From TrEMBL, chain B:
It comes from Actinomadura rudentiformis. GO terms for cellular component: ATP-binding cassette (ABC) transporter complex. Its main location: membrane. GO terms for molecular function: ABC-type transporter activity. InterPro entries: ABC2_TM, ABC2_TM_bact-type, ABC_2_transport, Nod_factor_ABC_transporter. Keywords: Antibiotic resistance, Cell membrane, Membrane, Transmembrane, Transmembrane helix, Transport. This is Transport permease protein.
Amino acid sequence: MVTINYAVGAGPAPGSGQGSPAIEVAHLTKRFGPAVAVDDVSFTVEQGEIFGYLGRNGSGKTTTVRMLATLTRPTSGQARICGADITDARRVRRLIGVTMQEAALDEAMTAGEHLRFVAGLSGLGRAAARRRAEEVLEVVGLSRDAEVRIGAFSGGMKRRLDIASALISRPPVLFLDEPTTGLDPQSRRAVWEEIRTLQASGATVFLTTQYLEEADQLAGRLAIVDAGAIVAEGSPRKLKADHGRTTITVAHNGVAGQIESTLKGDLLADEHLATDGSGRTVITLSSGTGGERALELLARIQGAGISPTHLAVTETSLEDVFIRLTGTAIGVGASGSDGASGSDGASGSDGASGSDGAPDGTGGEDRR
Amino acid sequence: MNESRNVLEAPGATAGRAVGLVFRRQATAALRDPGPHFVLPALPALLMTVVFTALFDRIGDAPGYDAGGLDRSHAGGYDAFLIPGVVMLVALLGAGATSASLAADLRSGYFERLRLLGARPGTHLTGRLLFEAVRLLPGTAVVLGVGLVFGGDNRNGIVGLALVTMLVAMLGMAYSGVFYTVAIRTTDPQTPFQLQPLGLPLAFLSTALVPLGVMPGWAETIARWNPVSPVVDASRQALTGDPWAGELPGAVALLAGIIVATHALASLTLRRRLAGS
Ligand SMILES: Nc1ncnc2c1ncn2[C@@H]1O[C@H](COP(=O)(O)OP(=O)(O)OP(=O)(O)O)[C@@H](O)[C@H]1O
Ligand SMILES: [Mg+2]
């Protein structure tokens, strides 16, 4: 596999401010008429990071990317790419590669023609454009399809070709707007691999997604956006620690009452017990606690002579965090995009996490 | 890989190179899909050459017939009159084919992607414009060839044919700006087909097919003001009269002016659209 050295060994881009963050955003806002699409967002992405921008449909992800990529003018606020202000479109465009949500390609062209065209328009000479097109095709694993008409490509291939076009000029900063939406799991993983490779070669990646798993797997840090505004920001681990809750699910032979009376005196203020649909007892632990606290409580249960028929300790998923922060599940895919799905089993791993939406006051699904 | 050192190796193509690349893309697409690009423009002109020379052979005897102001003794029959006029239909019917991909690019977001690469947006118009001229050449050659077989006059040889071909190409370029303007506004890839009917009055209400003298009064008035008429007259002169006399410089200047005007309009429309987002 070809390794592209994006920023490694590259002298500082003219005026790009050596050591300045890859992306700096301050109070960026976009209104369409009375509607606020992006609501006063601020964040910083350091060079070499993969920064996830996680939100459901209509939360302002694309609009944010379009503003940072100089395609849409902000209503207010500022942003810099490697030190270059986004109002200086010519300079910023030299620093970025962009793939939009819908792969924009001319289906009548072959992959090679498209990439040579893109390379040429970027300023490469004929021979260099040809070479570069071959290189990026190899990066995304499409070398053998170079002379195939794009119209005959699958959705996943188009997406990868689209990413390849964004790599042509070796931009230090890449904006990928939902690069895996609509792909099957295998293609999705292939794109993930590519994104990791890009990061390894020095690129900074701004990645929007509505897949929690994707953000969890790829992003070093991420922002959760809701209705245009950032509601939380940090590494997936930090977000889980800050906002997530570990749960213990205890399956037993109808001794819920006994468990409750055993633990009653031990539970902290924000811990609670509940019974899920299958009669299992679900213990939600205090936020910021994990395995140790679980062992403590389990020791009590054991001490009381209760023997569970089955036991699961489940770490918080990013989904739980998302629900907690935005009030509803993210509703990926065609179904259930608005609301209510936060309540039960369908979501987290082995059912346990689903049940913690109910108590705890915030649980109301119709918050929006 | 040493060249990978320089991050900013791609500052955007020069205008000339970008125009060349856009031209090439259009040419490749047209060769793959020759129908609308090469064949369609020639069909109406060919049909009319065959039909009109057969039907109206004796129109020269009609009262008021005047072969476009040409010396009767030189002008020959209706065949000789028709060919340099009907060939202009190559530029008028089947026009603006490259506006389809412009509309499609704008609609799909491809244009936006390309715009981020640094080359000026206007180069996407200019490259297409040049290809519009080139794609009309095969059709023009075929119509002229068939026309000569059907009795056209070609006393000026290759010079006359070259001048007529140039006028067709320029007319095609001038007219394409209208298609680009509409395509940018609607982003509808069907634009060339939707504007197709516009070519009919431009062609028929001009001196392309019949002389002013045999037209009804209202048609004559329109034909006098139709910018196609002076172009046709110059074409007729180039083929069957004195190529360098009177009409030609005026027609070339007129076409150049229209090319500039319609493309200024298209560029402005494009700039407005891009600024509006
Ligand atoms: N050009 C526009 N004109 C008017 N409203 C717009 C425009 N573009 C976006 N919006 C609105 O702004 C909001 C944010 O849209 P945006 O496309 O940025 O969301 P998104 O997070 O990318 O959503 P998705 O996951 O569906 O792609 C939406 O309410 C949308 O309707
Ligand atoms: Mg979007």
